[in-house]
Amino acid sequence: MDITTGLQLLEALRRADQADANLSAASRAAHRASLAATDALTDIANCEQRLDAAHDGEQGAGADLLECARQKYIDAGRRRRSAKSKARRAYTAARTANREFGARYAPHAPGRGTGGKRRPAVAASVLQELAAMPLELITAADALLVHSSGGKDSLVMLDQVATWAHQVGCTDKIVVVHCDLGDTSEWPGVRDLAERQAARYGLRFIAIDSEDGLLGLVEKRGRFPDAARRLCTSSLKRDKANVLLTSIVTALGLDRQAVVINCLGIRSSESPARARKLPLAIDTRTSNRNRLVITWHPVLEWSETDVWERIATEGLEYHPAYDALMPRLSCVFCVLAGYTVLVRAVRLCWALGLPLPEKYTELEARIGHRFKDQYSLADVVVEAAKVEADEGPLKWRCGDAIRAHLGEDAAADYALRYFALAT
Ligand code: SF4
Q: What is the pLDDT of residues 139-160, one digit of tens each?
């Protein structure tokens, strides 16, 4: 399958899925409207019975209730008619979208059905095929947004995508996007580092500012986010990046649907949720008639060692927090981090003279909500003080991250390569 056909199939799939979702929503609304009309009819019958049994003095109030129930029935009937007509239109649209998809897919799998049940399997196979042709994908895209946290996984993903884009002469399509949560959320120097990482390949870099970062969000909501309600990622990162995506598509000024690829540096070994991801996925939430948005995870199958090997062999600049053996360059106190990582983060704040442990524990006390269900950040600070008393202040050397993952020789090679590239 060539890339153009693949992308057309993805769009046809997206439309069919969207049309089916619209049909389900319209059918549910029609069902709810029917139930409301039935309830209103029962109310009328009850009111009529009560009115028949009412004494003279109570008849006025009974008649008012009956009138009210009849009005409700009329309103419910109107809603039911409107909902049923919407459901009919949604049914026709879904049938058309499914036929269009079937017609597009049939030449590629003669004799195999493409009904709703088979569609996820078809989507997975098309996406898998496209993921195996990165150069064609980059060439066919109108824009690529490379989301960079400045962390190690974003760094190697950026290196990989920039290398491919360079091979096909498409680096001008790439925009490196960094969501800057500010110095009350992140380690010092992250934004500048992300900018330097993009500059290495001559790529356009856009930083999206967040007014008050994680701390501000928690202050506003009166509670910390958690794994089930990760509002921090959606409101501080994803929603803002989507606004940027819209402006990029508008600036393209195309008279056809734009193909935009969102590149993310996640890896399947990071969590069970990430292990379920595919290398490519249609971003149904962000796609519409004007843009087909595809999410791409180019380093999904990479191990942590693969990541450090790429950093070492290419002499890529990483954040010094990794040398202090922080496993991720997330927010200083990430709501998804484990206890020992948080303890280390507190100790690293102390080593760097950052006032964040106090700020966060004061916030916890003020809003009366703990950083995590199981423990507070104040508990973490107490534990960090104990570890510090036993082990002394946190110390690290430049290159410790490479040393820990790849050994002393690799750290020495990295230092030579990095400084050679930097000068
Ligand atoms: S790094 Fe952690 S705390 Fe920060 S936005 Fe992401 S999930 Fe939320």
A: 999 999 999 999 999 999 999 9
Q: Residue 202: left if φ>0, alpha if ψ -120 to 50, beta else—which one?
A: left
Tokens coding 378? 């104040």
Q: What 3-state DSSP class applies to 205?
A: strand
Return the CA Rg of the chain: 28
Cβ atoms of 318 and 152 closer than 8 Å = yes
Whole-angstrom distance between the N-terminal and C-terminal Cα of the chain?
Answer: 46
Instruction: Say yes or no: 119 and 137 in one domain.
Output: no
Where is 175: in which H helix or E strand?
Answer: strand 174-180
**What pLDDT digit, counting tens, does each position of 50-66 carry?**
888 877 777 778 888 88
Atom 6, ligand 1: residue with shortest CA distance: 233
- Atom 2 in ligand 1: residue holding the nearest Cα: 334
Return d(Cα 244, Cα 238) in angstroms, integer.
10
- CA dihedral 353→358→359→360, nearest 10 degrees, is 120
- Which tens digit of pLDDT belongs to each residue from 43-52? 999 888 888 8
pTM, two decimal places: 0.86
DSSP 256: S
Q: Are 371 and 360 in contact (CB under 8 A)?
A: yes
Compute the distance from residue 326 Cα to the ligand 1 centre, in Å.
Answer: 15
Are 226 and 253 part of one and the same domain? Answer: yes
Residue 100 placed within a domain: yes
Burial per residue of 274-289, b for 16 or more beta-carbon CB atoms within 10 angstroms, e otherwise: eeebebbbbbeebbee
418 C-alpha to ligand 1 centroid (Å):
29
What is the CATH number for 220?
3.40.50.620
Range of the domain at 272: 132-296
Walk across the sheet containing 143-147 and list its strands.
Answer: 204-209, 174-180, 143-147, 258-263, 291-296, 280-282
Whether residue 94 is found in the same domain as residue 29: yes
